[in-house]
Amino acid sequence: MAFCTGCGMKIPDNSQFCTGCGKSIDSNVSPQKEAAKVETVQAQPVVTPQQPVSASGSVYIEKQEPPHGSPYAVMGVGTYVGVTILFCIPIIGWLICIVWACGGCKNRNKRNYARAVLILTIIGVIIAVILSIVISLLLGSVTAVIGEYFKEAGVNFMGENSGFNEIIDAFKEIGMQVPVK
């Protein structure tokens, strides 16, 4: 049985090509010479870098940061603060946030941060609209009750003689003490 000179794999006697690397086999080379060639090649020691190992036996893998200017470059604290302040500018900041969130920024961290700010802004606007509707409904019903109360007391808020003095007089009529300066 012969050995391949390219990869060192065993080759059957009747084969013309190595099954490992596909190199053609020279029929003039005897199997003993092939074995001698393989034996004279010195094996290079395999050096594996030492990985730090924890007490539990797991291997720590040191992560490298992407290079500066890469789409995956890490944003520093100052960049986050600056971008946050930029997004707080009323119209310009919102436009920049929308552009970056839609892919106008090559840094993926900035794009993802802009998307998060945009989503939180939309959620905040929706909550503000819902709260303003609820508060206006509650205050509307409260002001209607107060208006009915004053109407029963004879206070006309919309007529010609309506004014602050009539409100004070209405409070005095129902027995409330109103401090007037």
What does this protein look like?
The chain is an all-alpha fold. Helix content is 51%, strand content 2%. The relative contact order is 0.05. The mean pLDDT is 76.
What is this structure, in a nutshell?
The chain is mainly alpha-helical. It contains 5 helices and 2 strands. The protein has a two-stranded antiparallel ribbon with strand order 1-2.
List the helices and strands and how they pair.
Elements: E1 2-3, E2 10-11, H1 31-40, H2 77-88, H3 90-104, H4 108-153, H5 164-173
What structural keywords apply?
single chain, 181 residues, mainly alpha, two-stranded antiparallel sheet, 5 helices, 51% helix, rod-shaped
What's the gyration radius in Å? 42 Å
The rough form would be described as rod-shaped
Strand content: under 5%
Strand order of the largest sheet: 1-2
Structural class by SSE content? mainly alpha
What is the CA–CA distance across the termini? 119 Å
Helix content: 40-55%
Main sheet makeup = 2 strands, antiparallel
Number of helices: 5
Order of helices and strands: EEHHHHH
- Quaternary status: single chain
Strand tally? 2
Give unreliable regions as ranges: none
